[in-house]
């Protein structure tokens, strides 16, 4: 593996951000893998096995981060340009960073007759919110009886994003996909959708792909951690992620607006600015549904995701209020202890 930082995305902007750390004698590097408080970091000299300092949690350092190293310790994390964030799988009221400083989010969707458009819309909202450019990759096209129909369905919900159908096994569509994937690319999708097979085709690195289960026809989960791997041909680097069982939205208002730009555009013509697109008179969104130009399923999906995002935001606000109250209580206890300690205030 080449250790050239430029190969991994280092540029003059990153150099400027790192300048204060360089003045302190620290070493720049990019995190290629994180595992239980330890991470592999590529530097200009060589790869380094680094330890995350105690004041960082595992969520503070992520694959794709640019960091400042002090020996074998991560001393600081540079501000991220982009970050793919979902609601924490544990149900806690904070976000989980899946990948940092990515240029393209490749949303992997299996090319099947019963394609899950709702999940594609959810992942598109996360991708747009990240600040990166989303691309939808329809995998397993060789096993689909009507690729054109599935492509049309997905393109209908992937507003502003390109959709490419591929067969990683036969190599179909990979040349077209190569043109979409530059810089730092992250693959996201459920287990069994063909991510690892696709990643192997894109990088030339055997990622130990497992066969499809005969019981339900689904692929077995292969990737167990996020890892940054050079793309074949030197076009950039790829982050392969474990299959996502749950993809909760977290602070994704802008992402939802981009993912459902067609509904937002229609809503601008509603009679009322706060139209809920229900039974209100003059609703342009409902008119489009009645005219057959907007599927009712898409509005339902949009409203469901908006409610979920608002609920997550309310939980975050409640957590922040609780943390502030806890800090205030701690401060007041400390002050009471200071003023009420024995002997204070006595005169001799």
Automatic annotation (TrEMBL):
**InterPro entries annotated for this entry?**
P-loop_NTPase, Ribosome_biogen_GTPase_RsgA, RsgA_GTPase_dom, Sigma_54_int_dom_ATP-bd_1
Similarity field: Belongs to the TRAFAC class YlqF/YawG GTPase family. RsgA subfamily.
Question: What sequence ranges are listed for the domain EngC GTPase?
Answer: 100-245
What are the binding positions for Zn(2+) in this chain? 270, 275, 277, 283
Q: What is this protein called?
A: Small ribosomal subunit biogenesis GTPase RsgA
Gene name in the database record: rsgA_1
Instruction: List keywords of the entry alphabetically.
Output: Cytoplasm, GTP-binding, Hydrolase, Metal-binding, Nucleotide-binding, Ribosome biogenesis, RNA-binding, rRNA-binding, Zinc
Q: Which cofactor does it need?
A: Zn(2+)
NCBIfam families for the chain: ribosome small subunit-dependent GTPase A
Record-linked PANTHER family: SMALL RIBOSOMAL SUBUNIT BIOGENESIS GTPASE RSGA (PTHR32120)
Q: How is the cofactor bound?
A: Binds 1 zinc ion per subunit.
Q: Cite the EC number.
A: 3.6.1.-
Please describe the quaternary structure of this protein: Monomer. Associates with 30S ribosomal subunit, binds 16S rRNA.
- Where, by residue number, does GTP bind? 139-142, 189-197
- Where is the protein localized? Cytoplasm
Role according to the record: One of several proteins that assist in the late maturation steps of the functional core of the 30S ribosomal subunit. Helps release RbfA from mature subunits. May play a role in the assembly of ribosomal proteins into the subunit. Circularly permuted GTPase that catalyzes slow GTP hydrolysis, GTPase activity is stimulated by the 30S ribosomal subunit.
